[in-house]
Amino acid sequence: MLSELYNDRLISLTANIPHSGLLENPQYQATSHSKICGSTISVSLNMEDGMVSAFGQEIKACLLGQCAASVVGAHIIGCTLIELKQLRQQMNVMLKQEGKPPAGKWQDLELLLPVRDVKQRHTSVMLVFDAVVEAIDG
């Protein structure tokens, strides 16, 4: 199971996480923390015309949290709050209710599908999604 979870693609995504470092003077910011594993992800972002126009993140998380943050960092610019809420919901359903993984630009999140069987790691995967939605939505 570990070899399925910690594969080369997941590891390569975590090697160069987009938008690392928080923004100076962001419109929105939030931090999500996992009490189970101690992982923390902080995000900062700006919105323009209802879409994310700038994004930064500080990640102190396991490889699973880093992988999710890497995919989000690669594709968040131009997203609306509605899209980001739907993405968070889809990830929750994927992990907890055996739903399908996101598709399209988010398809790399499929790499986290094996986490569904490791319930104590769900929180670390969800940190970036929770922080982004909390930052914008309050």
- Report the uncertain regions: none
Largest sheet: 3 strands, antiparallel
DSSP strand (E) fraction? Answer: 15-25%
- N-to-C order of helices and strands: HHEEEHHH
What is the gyration radius calculated from CA atoms? 14 Å
Order of strands across the main sheet: 1-2-3
- Helical amount: 40-55%
Mean pLDDT rating: 92
> How many helical stretches?
5
Count all strands and give the number: 3
Q: Identify the overall geometry.
A: globular
Terminus-to-terminus distance? 37 Å
Helical/strand content category: alpha+beta
Can you describe this structure?
It is a single chain. A hairpin with a 6-residue loop joins strand 1 and strand 2 (40-48). 41% of the residues lie in helices and 18% in strands. The chain has 138 residues and is an alpha+beta fold.
Please supply descriptive tags for the structure shown above.
single chain; 138 residues; 5 helices; 41% helix; alpha+beta
Secondary structure blueprint with pairings:
Elements: H1 2-5, H2 8-15, E1 28-33, E2 40-48, E3 51-60, H3 63-75, H4 81-96, H5 122-137
Antiparallel strand pairs: 1-2, 2-3
Give the gist of this structure.
The protein is of the alpha+beta class and 138 residues long. Helix content is 41%, strand content 18%.
